[in-house]
Amino acid sequence: MDLTDSSVPLVRDALRETLRPYVDDLTGVSCIARGSDTLFAEVVLELGGRLVVVVPSKDYRQSKVKPDHADAFDRLVQAADDVVVLDNETANRAAYEEANRTLLHRASRLVAVWDGTPPSGKGGGTADTVQEAREAGFPVDVVWPAGAARG
């Protein structure tokens, strides 16, 4: 969520190259949070793929989507072939962990925009999801292009 402005086109291009081999049968699953989740979803649609959106909680749109991301969030929800709203009442760490598990259960591989920073111990983050996927023997593509940075 905290990519620098100059990193956005680098990550978008790297995602495009990572996903291009799958365009014949591409379905992307994303929570469409601000940042790399949104970039991933946009690239999936740009390449003609189907989008599945996983919303972590019933209150996520109202409580967590900031005004500067609302238009993109709403546009991606509208463009999605399927929107899965989890039963969690509130957006919290447990809801994010469940959303990430749902992503893994609905996917055949994980594409993670990740700088390699180890898990924070809080759970629900990219590092935790990469670790869980690798432990389960899931194919993982890590996208972190040269020059990318967090702000």
Could you walk me through the main structural features you see in this protein, from its secondary elements to its overall organization?
The protein is α/β, with parallel strands linked by helices and 151 residues long. The chain is globular. The longest helix is centred in the middle third of the chain and has 14 residues, at 93-106. 44% of the residues lie in helices and 15% in strands. It starts with 6 loop residues before the first helix and ends in an 8-residue tail after the last strand.
What's the structural blueprint in terms of helices and strands?
Layout: H1 7-19, E1 27-30, H2 36-46, E2 50-55, H3 60-64, H4 67-79, E3 82-85, H5 93-106, E4 110-113, H6 126-135, E5 140-143
InterPro entries: YspA
List keywords for this structure.
Rossmann fold; alpha/beta; 3-stranded parallel beta sheet
The CATH topology comes to Rossmann fold
Number of structural domains: 1
Shape from CA axes?
A: globular
Distance between the termini: 9 Å
As residue ranges, the low-confidence spans are none
Number of strands: 5
Write the element-wise H/E pattern from the N-terminal end onward: HEHEHHEHEHE
Describe the largest sheet. Answer: 3 strands, parallel
Strand content: 5-15%
CATH class, anyone?
A: Alpha Beta
User: Any idea what the radius of gyration is?
Assistant: 14 Å
Determine the number of helices (DSSP H or I, runs of at least 4 residues): 6
Can you give the helix content as a percent range?
40-55%
Arrangement of strands in the largest sheet: 1-2-3
Structural class: alpha/beta
Task: Determine the mean pLDDT.
Answer: 95
How does CATH name the architecture? 3-Layer(aba) Sandwich
InterPro entries: YspA (IPR010697)
